[in-house]
Design goal:
The structure holds two protein chains of two kinds.
Chain A: E1 7-18, E2 21-32, E3 36-40, H1 47-54, E4 62-67, E5 70-71, H2 76-82, E6 83-86, H3 98-108, H4 114-125, H5 140-151, E7 158-162, H6 170-185, E8 189-193, H7 197-200, E9 205-210, E10 213-219, H8 223-227, E11 230-235, H9 239-247, E12 254-258, E13 261-266, H10 269-279, E14 284-288, H11 292-300
Parallel strand pairs in A: 3-8, 3-9, 6-7, 7-8
Antiparallel strand pairs in A: 1-2, 1-4, 4-5, 9-10, 11-13, 11-14, 12-13
Helix pairs in contact in A: 3-4, 3-5
Chain B: H1 7-23, H2 25-45, E1 53-59, H3 64-75, E2 79-85, H4 88-96, E3 102-106, H5 110-116, E4 123-126, H6 131-152, H7 181-212, H8 214-220, H9 225-255, H10 263-287, H11 291-308, H12 320-327, H13 330-344, H14 352-372
Helix pairs in contact in B: 1-9, 2-7, 2-9, 3-6, 7-8, 7-9, 7-10, 7-11, 7-13, 10-13, 10-14, 13-14
Classes of the chains: A alpha/beta, B alpha/beta.
The complex binds adenosine-5'-triphosphate (ATP) and magnesium ion.
The site of magnesium ion has 4 residues of chain A, from helix 1.
């Protein structure tokens, strides 16, 4: 395998089957060095499985690739030493204290100057006075933050974060993303899976996976265009009744409600325009750019079945 | 794949295990408490050679010979005289409802008949439903009667001393003339205790990582499987040492079990046995998905260890198929080794056969375990 200098991750044809069921199917992904790459998809679509294959925790049934230039099939040890992987489920030791957990992970990675590094991490987390508390007694959000700190303790070149901010409060999430951007600027590559749209928007690139197949991937800002959605923003009275009527229309692929506002989208722009003209009533219809949010609701709603060709 | 074993990571895993062991109070207490409890239960409570069995006497005659026999029975500690019955019906009833294990019937004119050399019969009726309960006592009867008669009758009359108890298997108990069960059972118990704790604790400790999900974090680090294994197993080897030490001290202090053989032979066999149990625990951990399962499978392996190893029942008395299964159990060989070393004064060359047998089993178990061990999550 030749080292890929441009990409931190480059995999092709990754396939994983669990007892005959294909969970990840012919998956390709290129993550440029230093990028923040968002990994999206509904529950059970295969995100965690894919990430595990990339860092050598699972052996793919087919496909190959490289992580930081090392073969994912044969050079797992080298990959593990340079990657920080944060698991979706809290997987530090609940019966060890916060400090003991950090210290243990640091020892696993032979972090130089370990003690001061651990103390520093504790201070960054704001957990210095609770260092002696058992990790299992932390609240859910704090567990996430501890796990995140633990997977970064050895200054990895690549971070694989599996839903790192699930259950984390908004302030901590913002801090987290500030930190991610800082790392990215310093050249660290970040692959992050998430279900939050506001986080997806912060990514440079996005891949969307459903039923183990990658549906689309590319520069985040271009995703809605790639899907080819046209959207109207509808405001006014009797929105609820209108919503029900619109759902029955062929030209409408999806209606998403945001408070008192409807976002009506369809793939056929002309048909949607005609509909907008026909439905004009007490409500106000405005043409708008389709955003990531609509794009993903559209993808997740399963309307994706007849979607093709846009995959990068 | 290069073989690199990092002492740093091994020590990290080791100290983590120790911290976890220390925090897991119940398991920790169990590891030391259970062996002591078992020792006490098996040593004192479970007695396959029971004594002080309730006995009734039906006396149709009385005299110095009768008294000598009865007191001989009582001092043998097998029999505990509860009272005198007046007729055959009462004795039978006591046997049937279990209030007595034995009824001793002294026939009429017994004293006179003995003196006349008529060889009268003393009838000892025994409750035969529990052969092990009465076996020892029944076996001891002829001897007791002989002794009693010999003491009472001297001179020419001694020839008349031939009562006819229709039972009489003389039990020859080498190395344990008193027939004390504890001497035999206590060394064997070491095999059972080590099997139980070593297998179960290792299996559970390894499976725990998988069940709690910490395995995912662990194998995402550069740690090598050998480092994890060594680091996880070493603390439990130490536990095995502590258990054995406590055990030997208690066996000596409470039951007076001697240690007559070579310490070296014991040491070799004992270390080998610990390793074989750890390997078995490791093998179980590759099969079990949860700590509960690991526990159950460990218990499952414990059953043949107790029943077929010769711990509970004499190995030689088992049917052929059971002996075949028993020979595949490491405890069978360790048990023989310990009994030989502790009770029979064996040295290393005497137990070489047992050592080799354990080694063979170890090879087979390790080979299977290594084939089954996965370094990934799938
Ligand atoms: N070890 C396993 N054995 C069998 N099936 C598995 C295993 N791991 C995952 N799966 C299955 O693979 C599919 C994909 O799971 P995966 O965890 O990768 O999804 P995900 O995209 O991470 O979902 P979520 O958003 O809920 O975290 C699921 O249907 C899951 O049941
Ligand atoms: Mg997942």
């Amino acid at each position: 395998m030749t080292a890929d200098v441009e990409n931190a991750i480059s995999v092709t044809g990754l396939t994983k089957r669990f007892s005959g069921r294909t969970v990840v199917d012919d998956f390709d992904m290129q993550v440029p060095k230093g990028a923040i790459y968002g990994f999206l998809g509904p529950n059970g679509s295969g995100k965690t499985t894919t990430i595990r294959m990339m860092c050598g925790l699972l052996t793919p049934d087919a496909g190959q690739g490289a992580c930081l230039g090392y073969d994912i099939l044969t050079e797992q040890a080298k990959i593990k030493a340079r990657v920080g992987y944060m698991t979706q489920k809290f997987s530090l030791y609940e019966d060890l204290t916060i400090r003991e957990n950090l210290d243990f992970i640091a020892r696993m990675f032979a972090v130089p100057d370990r003690r001061s590094r651990v103390t520093e991490t504790l201070a960054d987390l704001g957990l210095t006075d609770r260092a002696g508390q058992l990790a299992g007694t932390l609240s859910g959000g704090w567990k996430q933050r501890l796990a995140l700190a633990a997977c970064m303790i050895h200054d990895p070149q690549l971070l694989l974060l599996d839903e790192p901010t699930a259950g984390v409060d908004p302030k901590a999430r913002r801090d987290f993303w500030d930190e991610i951007r800082k790392l990215s600027a310093a050249g660290v590559t970040v692959l992050v899976s998430t279900h939050y749209m506001d986080e997806a928007i912060q990514c440079d690139f996005i891949a969307y996976i459903a039923y183990g197949k990658k549906l689309i991937s590319g520069v985040a800002a271009e995703i809605p265009k790639m899907i080819g959605l046209s959207t109207y923003r509808v405001t006014g009275p009797d929105i609820t009744a209108l919503e029900t009527r619109l759902r029955a229309e062929d030209a409408v692929a999806q209606v998403a409600r945001f408070g008192a506002v409807l976002h009506v989208s369809g793939t056929d722009a002309a048909a949607l325009d005609a509909l907008a003209a026909r439905m004009k009533g007490p409500q106000k219809w405005e043409r708008k750019e389709a955003e990531l949010e609509e794009a993903f609701i559209y993808l997740m709603s399963g309307a994706a079945d007849n979607f093709s060709g846009a995959a990068a | 794949m290069t073989f690199d074993f990092s002492p740093g990571r091994f020590l990290a895993v080791l100290s983590k295990e120790f911290v976890q062991m220390r925090r897991d109070r119940i398991t920790f207490v169990m590891m030391i408490g259970v062996p002591i409890m078992q020792l006490l239960i098996f040593g004192y409570a479970i007695n396959s050679d029971p004594r002080h069995l309730p006995t009734l006497v039906e006396m149709a005659d009385e005299g110095p010979i009768t008294r000598a026999i009865l007191s001989g029975m009582e001092t043998s500690t097998f029999f505990d005289f509860q009272g005198v019955v007046t007729g055959p019906g009462e004795g039978d009833r006591a046997l049937r409802d279990g209030t007595a294990n034995f009824v001793v019937v002294i026939p009429p004119d017994f004293e006179r008949d003995v003196l006349r050399g008529l060889k009268p019969d003393i009838l000892v009726e025994a409750d035969g439903t529990d052969p092990t309960a009465i076996g020892g006592a029944a076996g001891a009867m002829p001897g007791i009667i002989d002794t009693a008669m010999a003491a009472t009758l001297t001179g020419p009359l001694a020839t008349a001393a031939r009562p006819a108890a229709p039972f009489g298997v003389t039990v020859h108990r080498a190395y344990n003339p008193e027939g004390e069960t504890s001497l035999n059972i206590v060394p064997g118990l070491l095999a059972v205790i080590l099997s139980m704790t070593m297998v179960m604790i290792t299996a559970v400790a390894i499976v725990r990582e998988g069940e709690r999900g910490t395995m995912e974090t662990l194998i995402a680090t550069p740690v090598r499987p050998a480092e994890v294994m060594a680091g996880k197993i070493a603390p439990y080897v130490l536990v095995g040492y502590v258990q054995t030490l406590v055990f030997l001290i208690l066996a000596r202090a409470l039951f007076g079990v001697p240690f007559t053989g070579s310490p070296l032979a014991f040491f070799v066999g004992f270390n080998l046995f610990i390793v074989v149990n750890l390997a078995l625990g490791f093998l179980i951990s590759t099969v079990a998905r949860s700590q509960m399962q690991a526990m159950q499978v460990s218990f499952f392996t414990l059953l043949p260890t107790i029943l077929l190893s010769g711990f509970m029942f004499p190995f030689a008395a088992m049917p052929g198929w059971a002996q075949t299964i028993g020979s595949a159990i490491p405890a069978t060989h360790f048990l023989r080794l310990v009994r030989k070393v502790m009770l029979k004064g064996a040295d290393l060359s005497d137990v070489m056969g047992n050592v080799i047998a354990i080694l063979l089993i170890l090879l087979v178990i390790s080979a299977i375990a290594m084939r089954r061990y996965r370094q990934t999550l799938d």
